[in-house]
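Fold this sequence, please.
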Amino acid sequence: MNKKELALAAVERLKQAYPDTVCTLDYDAAWKLLVSVRLAAQCTDARVNVVTQELFARYPTVEALAAAEPEDIEAIVRPCGLGPSKARDISACMRRLRDEFGGHVPDDFETLLSLPGVGRKSANLIMGDVFGRPAVVCDTHCIRLSNRIGLVDEVRDPARVEKQLRALLPPEESNAFCHRLVDHGRAVCTARTKPRCAECALADICEKHL
């Protein structure tokens, strides 16, 4: 089985295992997802979802959050860690959305990358989940599982993993596949405990680089 065949098989098996996969960050607007994914760096989605309830209640629009001082944002988002830098990025990003984009999140990948605090992972998440474009979100689960399964070979750099996965995955499946890797990485192919290979839907095709 070559890598392309392995990828297609993994797509289908994980689709059956996790048919209702979704982004685990809570949001009802594109700008809120942009804020949440910045807060999620080195923080759990569950904690981010708790913190953003207060943040979005106090600042319910792009304009309101853009008008807030970074210090006031930091006071709320501090439980997510890296409070000063996250607050500065969120403030600067919302001000650019307000001043340059009429309060809307741009639907162009390179423009998203130009926003403060937005890297390839965040831009891909927005493109895939908000705008329905082909996207490869390379978080820690995606990188770990792609190497374990054998889709990539000892590649840890997120941009390189993204590039290689784009060449293997059907574009229309790529975004959901990355979400399913997160589901699988949390439930079965775990990082901090021994992977439960006996329960794994990919057990007979995985190259098991543990």
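Residues 83-100 form the longest helix (18 residues). The radius of gyration is 18 Å.
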